[in-house]
Amino acid sequence: MQRDKREKFGLLLGLVGVICFSLTLPSTSIAVEYFGTTVVGLGRTVVAAILVAVVLIVRKEKLPSPRQFKSLLIVAVGAVLGFPLLTSWAMEFLPVSHGAVELALLPLATTGFAMFRAKEIPSLKFWISSIIGSLAVIVYALHLGFGQLQFADLALLAAVIILGLSYAEGGILAKELGSWQVIAWAIMIGAPFFVIPVGLNLTTEMLNVPIHAWISFIYLAVVSQFLAYVAWYSGMAMGGIARVSQIQYLQPFLMILFAAAFLNESITLFTLVIAVIVVFSVILGKNAPVSKKGSVSEKN
């Protein structure tokens, strides 16, 4: 019974993490209008680092080893530099519902990089599902871009790739360093390099921005950049990676819902249909059998 309660609490924490992540693009869209790409994309990490430093000191966490530090650099490049910066820039030009559809490919990208790191050979089913999902996203982007891909679309797809690599590397490292500690140390690595560019982009006019813009920025710094990761990783640790990770399929639909609720974006049937196709392809891809290099047997 105790184990059952632990798994249920893990699922709840996973759901909390997904909901928190689903509010990231809407918050970014609001904040970037007033603070700009650099402050929103990099400044969130600088602020998060203050909270993270306190937590690490209070818990007396050990410093990562030199070998772990190399993996943390990959996580930092993706989760605290590339993804926040690219999505902040893209949200200046694209609606959140558009971004939600493209970011739905993230679990598939993570799975692909995880297979590569584990030296596994993706099956034909994985490649077919990847092609279906990618083509659906491209068709969607071309449709909204009147026949051509916008640079913002390319930025979002690049964000998916770089964060997928970061997630896969972080997932492997979490087994020895600890779940939330991975993102915590990645934040501490990246933050010192962001202070100068963020400082150069601060203006006195930012003191007069609306309260909802400040709330959005603080949310990105405290929740999206750190606390959401704590809930997500803790949820997977308690409820099981396989079970809890399924909740992630709700994320694009929650993003679309929040975009309609907080940004008054009109959601078309075409958007919902494409989102369903992409999520379905991700489910197929994540559950596709793989085989180890040098082995002819497959496993689920």
Question: What key phrases describe this protein's structure?
Answer:
single chain, mainly alpha, 2 strands, about 0% strand
**Oligomeric state of shown chains:** single chain
Order of strands side by side in the largest beta sheet? 1-2
Number of domains: 1
Uncertain ranges: 295-300
Strand content: under 5%
Give helix % range: over 70%
Distance between termini? Answer: 28 Å
- What is the total tally of β strands? 2
> What would you report as the Rg, rounded to the nearest angstrom?
19 Å
In terms of structural class, how would the helical and strand content be classed?
mainly alpha
What's the story with the biggest beta sheet? 2 strands, antiparallel
Elements, N to C (H/E): HHHHHHEHHHHHHHE
- H/I helix tally: 13
Instruction: Give the integer mean of the pLDDT values.
Output: 88
**What is the 3D form?**
globular
